[in-house]
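Intended use. Records like the one below are meant for learning the mapping from a protein sequence to its folded structure. Do not use them to infer anything beyond what is encoded.
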Amino acid sequence: MYKLLLLAALLGCALAAPINDDTITKFLSNADTDGTYGYSVEQASGIAFGEQGQGGVGARGSYSYISPEGIPVQVTYEADENGFRPQSELLPTPPPIPEAILQSIRFIQEHPTPEELADRAVRAQQI
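Structure written out for the chain above:
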């Protein structure tokens, strides 16, 4: 009888404990002998991140959280021999190239210098 009462008291305490924002609500992990791996973690605060890939070859993953302004942030990424490439609507993008610069580039391509013509001839022979 006392054991049942003790078990009920412990269960009640466990259920009454508050969940912190740092509390992990989901954790999945997998690692295989061929170097492939994957993991996924979620916290009570809304932070989530995960990745899968092969060690030394490449990886794909994502992470998400709620910004201090209350905006949901979602970032996906890929990392391999071409570098780290994140994608998100919230990442800054460069401004468009001004038309005058584009015209200058076209002019340079259409009117090569004698040195550029000589360089092109050498490169054509190397191929």
